[in-house]
């Protein structure tokens, strides 16, 4: 199974999450839960950023909610396995997603994901392991964009 086929299958799962039919939603949840954690993160982040085949705003919002839930429950398990470059890339992609998003409701959901990552990147002593996040907040709060001020 190649990457394109996996992505198409993932897109079907995501679309099924939005179904009004309980059976279809249950099947989607089972298929989603069977995916490896790393696969979920990659596909959810791509969907949130609208990379690959264009997704609806509802699908992208669902992906942001699922990504936040993953990071709430399993962040350390996932993040600790990433190489430092991949960790940095993930953080950069999330901040870029906040900056680039045009849909207000979706930007807020992406902010929820970013906040969850930032929360997980505080160590037990309260040290921030993501200094770029604070710089980003400062730039957004002091920048000209009202959308980014709200995001901060």
TrEMBL record:
Q: Which SUPFAM superfamilies match?
A: ARM repeat
Q: Which UniProt keywords apply?
A: Cytoplasm, Nucleus, Protein transport, Repeat, Transport
A Pfam cross-reference name:
TPR_IPO5
**Where does it sit, as one GO cellular component term?**
cytoplasm
Compartments reported by the entry:
Cytoplasm; Nucleus
Origin superkingdom: Eukaryota
Q: Which GO terms describe its biological process?
A: protein import into nucleus
**Domain called IPO4/5-like TPR repeats: residue spans:** 103-152
Repeat keyword on record = yes
Q: What is this protein called?
A: IPO4/5-like TPR repeats domain-containing protein
User: Which organism encodes this protein?
Assistant: Homalodisca liturata
């Amino acid at each position: 199974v190649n990457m394109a086929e996996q992505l198409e299958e993932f897109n079907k799962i995501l679309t099924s999450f939005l179904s009004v039919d309980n059976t279809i939603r249950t099947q989607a949840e089972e298929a989603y839960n069977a995916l490896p954690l790393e696969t979920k993160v990659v596909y959810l982040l791509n969907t949130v950023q609208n990379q690959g085949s264009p997704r609806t705003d509802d699908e992208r919002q669902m992906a942001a909610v699922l990504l936040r839930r993953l990071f709430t429950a399993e962040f350390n398990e996932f993040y600790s396995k990433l190489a430092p470059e991949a960790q940095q890339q993930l953080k950069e992609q999330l901040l870029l997603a906040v900056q680039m998003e045009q849909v207000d409701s979706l930007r807020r959901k992406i902010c929820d994901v970013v906040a969850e990552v930032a929360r997980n990147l505080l160590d037990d002593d309260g040290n921030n392991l993501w200094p770029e996040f604070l710089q980003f907040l400062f730039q957004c709060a002091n920048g000209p964009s009202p959308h980014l001020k709200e995001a901060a």
